[in-house]
Design brief:
The chain is α+β, with helices and mostly antiparallel strands and 310 residues long. It has eleven helices and nine strands. Strands 3-2-1-4-5-9-8-7-6 form a nine-stranded mixed beta sheet, sandwiched between helices.
Amino acid sequence: MLSKYFDLSGGVPSHDTYQRFWNAISPTQFRDSFAEFVECLQKVCSEIISVDGKTIRNSGKEKPLHIVSAWCQNNQMVFAQEKVYETSNEITAIPALLKKLDLHGKIITIDAMGAQRDICQQIIDGGGDYVISLKGNQGTLHEDVVLFLEDEGNSQFQHEENDKGHGRIEKRVAAVSHDIGWLQEIHKWPGLKAIGKVTATVLRKGKETTEVRYYISSLSLDAGRLNGIARKHWGIENQLHWRLDVVFNEDKACIRNDNAAENMDILRKWALAILVGAKDKKDRSVKSLMRRNAMSMAHLIKCFKKISHA
């Protein structure tokens, strides 16, 4: 049936042929092709773009490949990505990634690794805003925010959300303060307008756990909005990284060549974007759609036509 769509006069390509092919492709050019595919979608994406990194455990010759991605929850798609080189880290990769994005009018969410003055300034200069979590890597800034927000009287806005599902009950309480003049006198952080925290309490199988996350933001947001933005940020973990591991078995792939490993990472994300776009009400998940395609060539072709608007 494939002969209707492809010229396989030389036979079906072997494993070694595929290996040579993916090794030979420049990841930069392949990444640029992917960027062209999603370029038009940036115009219709939600205002929130989440940035986070993931290590592909069994990849790379010397060291596992680590990729920082920019994820749009609304489109369920990676808009750009940047490789973290062996002698570097996410702090140098994030600015290069941000240069590939249209930041105007967007809210960029990053974990504590992105709590750097230069990164925040780059987002502000690009016409965007940031909501970035804080940890001990920012020393006195983190300590000052924690001490200030520990006093509930300093929180101008509070908001509570409750969720139940997947065998657990979760309560998230957000608190925000815009009273940061004293903080700016000390730290002079680019564009800073608000600080906040989200306390997440999870009850699962009779065991309760609590985690508190602290945030800085260039937005004059209230607690309800902080709760929503913080929750959406974790979409990059739940909707992207989890799917790459569970649906595509990325961490079990043993591709050692750096070019091939990076190209396959791009291909998985490309395939995920296509599958999400093709999924309908009959498909409970991306994995169920993949199963239907694997069992029926006719369904696969139908899926392909839907994606390509053929």
